[in-house]
Specification:
Layout lengths: L1 E8 L3 H12 L4 E5 L14 E2 L7 H21 L6 E10 L4 H7 L8 E3 L1 H7 L8 E11 L2 H14 L3 E4 L4 E5 L2 E6 L4 E9 L5 H7 L7 E10 L9 E4 L3 H9 L14 E13 L5 E10 L8 H15 L9 E9 L6 E4 L6 E5 L8 H12 L19
Parallel strand pairs: 1-2, 1-10, 2-7, 4-12, 10-17
Antiparallel strand pairs: 3-6, 4-6, 5-6, 8-9, 9-10, 11-14, 11-15, 13-14, 16-17
Helix pairs in contact: 1-5, 1-9, 2-9
Length: 392
């Protein structure tokens, strides 16, 4: 049986970052990913880095560290990750008072600037100014999640980390300790296993008898490729209903429903917006659904029509461009903080998940996690430890 210091399950951006940092400090690392071609939240992430959005000492510190990491990451990893700073335009519905929305953002480390519809149109010419009463804007980080993940994996391999395409089907368990994992063809032993499976985390761990209080939405969006640069900003609604949905769906009252088969926890929401990458690829979305199952039984044509109809109000010139509907699972914790730490009541197994907002936390927390694994105490990580779900 092949043996490693760490097995990391899931090679999205969080798993790749954690595997790289663990290998960098000297651990032997195996990174396992079930899909040769990614179809995950990393693949369909907007790539936004909200390093202005700290709301406490801890989150402000992580935002600052995240920005610093991204500024140096391309040079450190030896690959262009297309990191840049652009204007985030947060649109305000024409029936909403702009001052009311602005007040909601006073809690953040950097308060966005309030714009008139005309000023917002100056930043983003594709905006339909008649559909908004104003907008908020702030400088926002942005990178290419696909390139960043690939860069992390390549750099991990230079530190002798191993990357393999294989689905983990079970854990190797002895009493209250996890000793490794099994794939359909091979068993791997490890001193520690790190679960970075994003939106699959809760179901994956629950099926292995390891309940953890982490959740997922099914995000639905449209991907457009082969286009020339058009969007100059990252456009999202100032009143992002996804955050309210996540908070409501993860209450003590509703937590047990996530263990029931095929339940819709709450009604879906739609946050119209979009971003364009430097290669021309555009992502437009998004619908978010809270379903207890990881399988999405949705009418793709109806969802695509809903997205396009909403975007005709905000970004009309993009709404009818030929594109393809996609969906992916997006992990969240309900506290707007990621879940990082040991699984309750077990040793040898850890979780690194729930980075829905903001993604800027992932690199500094991967670095902190690796340093803690090497024996350095970290007071921030203790605040992110996973909690068990409410008993049924």
């Amino acid at each position: 049986m092949m043996t490693y210091d760490w097995i990391v399950i899931g090679a999205g951006i969080t798993g790749a970052a954690a595997a790289y940092e663990l290998a960098k400090v000297g651990f032997s690392v195996l990174l396992l990913e079930q899909d040769a071609i990614a179809n995950n939240a990393t693949r369909y992430s907007y790539g936004g880095l909200a390093y202005w959005a700290g709301v406490s000492d801890v989150t402000t510190q992580l935002c600052t560290e995240g920005k610093q990491r991204y500024l140096q990451l391309a040079e450190e990893l030896g690959t262009d990750i297309e990191f840049r700073e652009l204007n985030l335009v947060l649109t305000i519905d024409r029936n909403t008072d702009p001052q009311t929305l602005l007040a909601n953002y006073a809690q953040f480390a950097v308060t966005p600037q309030l714009l008139t519809p005309q000023e917002a149109g100056g930043l983003e010419p594709l905006l339909n100014q008649n559909a908004i009463s104003g907008a908020l804007t702030v400088k926002h980080g942005h990178m290419n999640p696909i390139l960043t993940t690939q860069a992390y994996i390549q750099a991990m391999q230079r530190y002798n980390g191993v990357w393999a395409i294989a689905k983990v089907v079970d854990f190797i368990k002895e009493r209250d300790r996890i000793l490794g994992v099994k794939t359909p063809d091979t068993a791997y032993a490890a001193e520690n296993t790190l679960v970075c499976t994003g939106g699959w985390t809760r179901q994956f761990l629950r099926e292995a008898g390891m309940p953890v209080r982490v959740y997922h939405t099914h995000a639905e969006l449209i991907e457009i490729t082969g286009t020339t640069p058009q969007l100059q900003t990252l456009v999202m609604p100032a009143n992002q209903m996804r955050f309210a949905l996540e908070a409501a769906a993860s209450t003590d009252e509703l937590d047990p429903l996530w263990n029931e088969g095929d339940r819709e926890i709450l009604s879906p929401i739609f946050d119209p917006g979009g971003v364009q990458f430097l290669d021309g690829r555009i992502l437009l979305g998004q619908i978010s659904r809270t379903l207890s199952t990881t399988s999405l039984q949705s009418n793709a044509q109806a969802s695509e029509s809903q997205i396009r109809a909403g975007l005709r109000q905000i970004l009309p010139s993009l709404a009818d461009l030929p594109g393809t509907w996609h969906s992916c699972l997006v992990a969240f914790s309900g506290t707007r903080l990621p879940i990082v730490g040991s699984v309750p009541n077990l040793s040898g197994v850890h979780v690194f998940s729930g980075f829905t907002n903001p993604l800027v936390y992932a690199p500094p927390l991967a670095q902190r996690f690796a340093q803690a694994a090497a024996g350095n105490n970290d007071p921030i990580l203790s605040q992110l430890a996973p909690q068990s779900p409410i008993p049924n």
